[in-house]
Amino acid sequence: MLNFELPWHEIFAPTHSLLEMLVRGTIMYFGIFILMRLILKRQTGGISIPDVLLVVLLADAAQNGMAGEYRSITEGLVLVATIIFWNLAIDWLGYHVPFVERLVRPPPLLLIKNGKVLRRHLRQELVTMDELLSKLREEGVDSPADVIEAYIEGDGNISVKKKEK
Predict the structure, then answer these.
(1) Per-residue pLDDT for the chain (165 aa), expressed as one digit of tens each?
(2) What is the spatial distance between Cα 32 and Cα 30, in angstroms, rounded to a whole number?
């Protein structure tokens, strides 16, 4: 005979302190955020570090809650809510506090000035010359000499101010 009884208490009752889960989620979010911000560079046209962090941590937190490693859905939901809260809080703070905005979204960096490629800035952001030329072609520019200024923006996109012809 099949047994359809479920251990409801094990599914929903937390086995760890909910405060502990909040603290762990907060520390992990900021720890990984800082590591990613220090180690990773902007990717041309890529998504931002907080976006990647959100997806990775949400997937892990949700998986643990579903797989039973935390032993309860409640603990998984607390971690997911903590991660979403900090992601929204950082976005909000980035909008309202200039210092936080600089941490979350790096300022634009000049790559071309009056037709001259600033190779040191390319190296700093790990942008190859081929990558830069590709982005210029997408903007309808044949050569860096045809550019007044080009910047890599905080989100990784390259903006180009063309010379008048």
Answers:
(1) 677 788 888 888 888 788 888 888 888 888 878 877 766 655 555 666 777 777 787 777 766 655 556 667 788 788 888 888 998 999 899 899 998 888 887 889 999 999 999 999 999 988 999 999 999 999 999 999 999 999 998 778 899 999 987
(2) 5
In the chain, the number of structural domains is 2
Measure the CA–CA gap between 70 and 81, rounded to whole angstroms: 15
13 and 72 co-located in one domain: yes
Amino acid present at 142:
D
Closest CA to 24 of 73, 66, 65, 78: 78
DSSP 14-83: -SS-HHHHHHHHHHHHHHHHHHHHHHPPP-TT---HHHHHHHHHHHHHHHHHHHTSSS-HHHHHHHHHHH
The dihedrals phi and psi of 142, each to the nearest 5 degrees, come to -85, -30
Domain stop point among 104, 119, 138:
104
**What is the predicted pLDDT for the residue at 66?**
53
According to DSSP, residue 9 is labeled H
Structural domain including 133 reads: 109-162
Within-domain flag for 3: no
